[in-house]
Amino acid sequence: MIDKRVADLAYAVADIADRSTIMVGGFGEAGSPVELIHALIDQGAAELTVISNNTGSGDFGLAALIGARRVAKVVCSYPRSAGSTVFSDLYRAGLIELELVPQGTLAERIRAGGAGIAAFYTPTGVATALAEGKEQRVFDGQPYLLERALTADVALIKARAADWHGNLVYNKTARNFSPLMAAAASTTIVEATAVDAPGTLDPETVVTPGIFVDRVVQVADFAYEPVLAAQ
Amino acid sequence: MIDKRVADLAYAVADIADRSTIMVGGFGEAGSPVELIHALIDQGAAELTVISNNTGSGDFGLAALIGARRVAKVVCSYPRSAGSTVFSDLYRAGLIELELVPQGTLAERIRAGGAGIAAFYTPTGVATALAEGKEQRVFDGQPYLLERALTADVALIKARAADWHGNLVYNKTARNFSPLMAAAASTTIVEATAVDAPGTLDPETVVTPGIFVDRVVQVADFAYEPVLAAQ
Amino acid sequence: MSDLSASKVGKLKGWTRNQMAALAAADIADGSYVNLGIGIPELIAHHIPPDREIVLHTENGLLGMGPAPDPQAVDPDLINAGKKPVTTLPGASFFHHADSFAMIRGGHLDLCVLGALEVAANGGLANWSTGATDAVPAVGGAMDLVSGVKAVHILTSHCTKEGSPKLVERCTRPLTGKGVVNRVYTDLAIFDIGAAGFDLVCLAPGVDFSDVIERTAAPVNDIRPKDERTWT
Amino acid sequence: MSDLSASKVGKLKGWTRNQMAALAAADIADGSYVNLGIGIPELIAHHIPPDREIVLHTENGLLGMGPAPDPQAVDPDLINAGKKPVTTLPGASFFHHADSFAMIRGGHLDLCVLGALEVAANGGLANWSTGATDAVPAVGGAMDLVSGVKAVHILTSHCTKEGSPKLVERCTRPLTGKGVVNRVYTDLAIFDIGAAGFDLVCLAPGVDFSDVIERTAAPVNDIRPKDERTWT
User: Is A78 an interface residue toward B (CB < 8 Å)?
Assistant: First the structure.
C-alpha cells in the first residue's frame, strides 16, 4: 500500500544530513514551506547548500535558516530582499557563498535535473558577466550558453492539497518552482493544507504526480510570511 | 479584444504553404486532429514535413495525408501501424523520408523548440544506431547525446475544451504531444469540442495557456479513428 | 551627442511618469502578451486604451494578471514578480516557472517593458547591477526577458538623479543583454534604436532637440518628419 | 555455454507466459512505479500479489493505469502505450509526453519490464529492430526506458520460434541500450546479469542446468545456493 503521509514535521525532516543540497520552493512569500524550514532549523543540519529563488524575508523561514548559519551556499536568482538583511550581511562578511543564476535558467536547470537532461544551451545571459566561465556555442547563427542540470538531496515544498500517493495541486502563484524541485530532488517532502485519500484529486488536474513525492505532512493552516512578519 | 475563434476548418488551414513543417498531435488514435488534417488535404499544401509520433492508421487522418503524397518527410518515433501500410509502402519505395527519433527525445526536442532551448544532452540512444552522426559528450562520467530543438511552422492539435483566448484542456491520454507542439509551432491551430468565453476554464487547470494558440475551431463531435475505421 | 557634464544642463519638466506610461501603453497592439517590469513599467497597466485587450504575464507563473485587489481580498499566494498582491482576469492561467520562462525564452511574449540604469546606442541594456563592489548581486528574470521576448521597450528617466545621461554610447554598468532594446521612453523623448545611434521619434512638450542632445551621451538622429521638427 | 545449433536441442515445457509474468510480478516491491512493455510484460498487471500496491506508468501520459474497461466503457482517449483501452485507478494522473519521459529519463520509475529479441551477457538489449534491411524502422520509447528507468527486467521466451538462443554473448541485432538489463525471465529460468555472464537464479520445474546451457549462447553461472541445485 502506498501511503506517503508522515506524522509530523520533525519526523519528515529527521534524516536530512549535514552538507546536503536542499531545494526550497517558493517565490517570495508564495509557496515558501515555512513550517518544514522551521523543522529543519530545529533538526540542526548544517553546511547546507540551498537552491531557491530568494533568500527569505523577515527573520523566519529561509531567512531564519540562513541567519542560524546553517547554509554554506545559496544558488538563487534574487538574494536581495526588502524585508531581510540576513543574507546580505553574511554575504558582505564573506560568510556565505552565492551562485547567482538568471531566474529562467534556474528554473530550467532544475527542470533538467528532474528530467535526466545533463545540460542544455540557452540564450539567456550571453555577453553578460554571468556568462563568465561558461561554454558558449553558436546554433543557427545565434550564441547560446551551456548550462548544467541542478539536482538536490532534498526538496522542501508547499502544496494546497495532496493525496496519500503524493499527488499535488498548488494554490495560484504559489506553484512557482515546486513542481520542478519535486522532480529534481532525491527526497521530496511536502507540507500541504489538505491531505486526503487517493481518488480525491482529479487525474486531469494533478500538477505534481505522486511519483515525484516521498513524504507528505499535513499542516492545517499555513503560517503565511506576511502574517508572521507583522507579529 | 482577443478572440482566436475561426469560422471553419477550411479557413483555419487556408494559409498553410507548400514545404511547411507541420507538427501533428496525437498518440495513435488519442488526440489526433483528424478534421484539421482532412481540411489540410482539401487545401492542397504539398511537400510537407510532418512531425508526429505515428504515421496514422487506416486510410484517414495522417495516413490519408501521407497517402495523398503531400508529405515529403516524417519525423517520428513509431511509423509502423497495425492498421495502415500507407507509410510503409511509400518508405520501402523510397518515396518518403524518415527521421526516426526515440519517443522521449522527440517529446523533449519539441519541448526545447517551444522553450527557446537550442539543444540538450540526453542519455537516450547512446551506443545505438540512432546515435550515429550525433555528438556524444560525457558529463559526470556518463555519456550523453546532443539533440537539437524541433520547431514548426504550424501545429495541428485537438483539445477537449478551449476558450476564446486559446486556453486549452485535453481529454485523458489524448493530451500527449499537443501541449508541447502548441508551444513549438509559429502558428497553432486547434480543433476543440467545446469553445466558450474566457472565464469558463479554471486558471488552475488550464494545460495549454492561450499564448501558445493562434486559431480555435469548434468541431462538435470528434470523428474518432476507431469509429471511422469501422465504417 | 554631447559630453557636457550633468551639472551644466538644467532640469526639464518633460512628461510625468504616468504620461510616459500612457505613451508606452498606446504603442501596445491589441491582443499582445506583455510582461511589465517592476517599478515605473507597472504603471502601464493603468493606461491601456479601453478598446484594446492586453494579456499581462508575470514571470512567477500567471498569464491574465489583473489589477491589485481590495485590501480585504489579498491572497498571499497570488502575487506578481514584484511580490505585490494582484488578481486574475477571465482567461487567466497559472503555471510553474519552467513553463513561465519557456514563454519568455521561447519568444512567445510580444513585448516586455523594463526600467534601465543605462541604455546603449547599439541596444545594449544595463538594468540588473550597479556594478558597485559592495552590492549583493541579484538578477531575477531580467536577462531571460531581454534574450527571449520579441520586443524590449525601456521606460526610464532620461538622466539619473545626479543628472548623468542614462542613454550612452556603451553601457558602463554590467550588461543585462547586448543589442536587445528596440525603443526607449524617457521623460524627455521617445527613441528607437537605430543603425547609428538613438533615432528620435518624438519630443515631450517644451523639450527641444538640443535639450535631448545635451542630455544624451550618444549620437541622436532626428528621424521625425520635417513638419514635426522644432529647432531651437 | 554452448554453440550447439538450435536443431540439436529439443523443446522444453518450462513456464507458461502467465507463470513467467507471475514470477516477474512477485519480484516487484510494494509501492513501485513500473512501466510494462507491450506484449507478454502486460500480463504482469494481472499477477501483482494482492498485498502490494504498484503504480503502473504508461509513457503516453498516465500514472495509475488500471485494467482494460468493459467494452461499453471504452474511451478512445484513454489508452496505453500499446494503444489499447485502459482505465484509471484512484490516485491516477495525466500528463504530457515531455513530463512522461522526464519520469522515465530522470530515473523516477523503479522498474520497466520489456520484451527482447536478444539479451547480451553484459546487459545489452536488442528489442527495437530486427535489423532486416527491408523493415520499416520504429523505436517508440524503448531506448528512453532502458536509459532512464532504475531497473530493467526482461520477459522473453528463452529461444526464438526457430529455436535460436536469445541470450547471447553480444547482441547481433541493433542495440536498444548497452549494459542496461538487470534480470531476465524466460520460460526456462531466471537470470541476473552477472560480472561474467548470466547468473542463474532459478530453473523452471523439469528444466536442468544443462538444458539452459545448451540453449544459451553465452556463459551461464550457477549462483544458486548448493542445496537448491539439481545436476543432470
Answer: no
User: Does residue D47 form part of some domain?
Assistant: yes
Nearest to A205 among B119, B140, B204 (CB): B204
- Is residue C1 included in any domain, yes or no? no
Q: What is the pTM of this model?
A: 0.96
- Distance between CA B52 and CA B46 in Å, rounded? 17
| D131 sits in which H/E element | none
Average pLDDT of chain B?
A: 95
Q: Is residue D26 part of a domain?
A: yes
* Total number of domains in chain D: 1
pLDDT per position as a tens digit, D86-110: 999 999 999 999 999 999 999 999 9
pLDDT per residue as tens digits for the range B34-59:
999 999 999 999 999 999 999 998 88
Residues (pLDDT < 50) of chain A are 231
ipTM: 0.95
Residue D51, domain CATH: 3.40.1080.10
Active site residues per annotation of C: 59
User: All domains of chain A, ordered by start, with CATH?
Assistant: 9-119+150-218 (3.40.1080.10)
Active site residue D42: no
- Is the CB of residue B87 less than 8 Å away from at least one CB of chain D? yes
Residue of D nearest to A163 (CA): D91
C75 to chain B, any CB pair closer than 8 A? The answer is: no
Domain residues for the domain of C104 are 6-228
Alpha carbons A146 and A148: distance in angstroms, whole number: 7
Distance CA D84, CA D79 (A): 5
- A198 — contact with chain D (CB < 8 Å)? yes
Using DSSP, state whether D179 is helix, strand or coil. coil
Please report the pLDDT score of residue B57 as a whole number. 86
CB contact under 8 A, B116 and C148: yes
Query: Which residues have a Cβ under 8 Å from the Cβ of C121 and sit 6 or more positions away?
Result: C167, C168, C169, C170, C193, C196, C197, C198, C218, C219
List all chains that touch chain A, counting a touch as 3 or more CB pairs closer than 8 Å: B, C, D
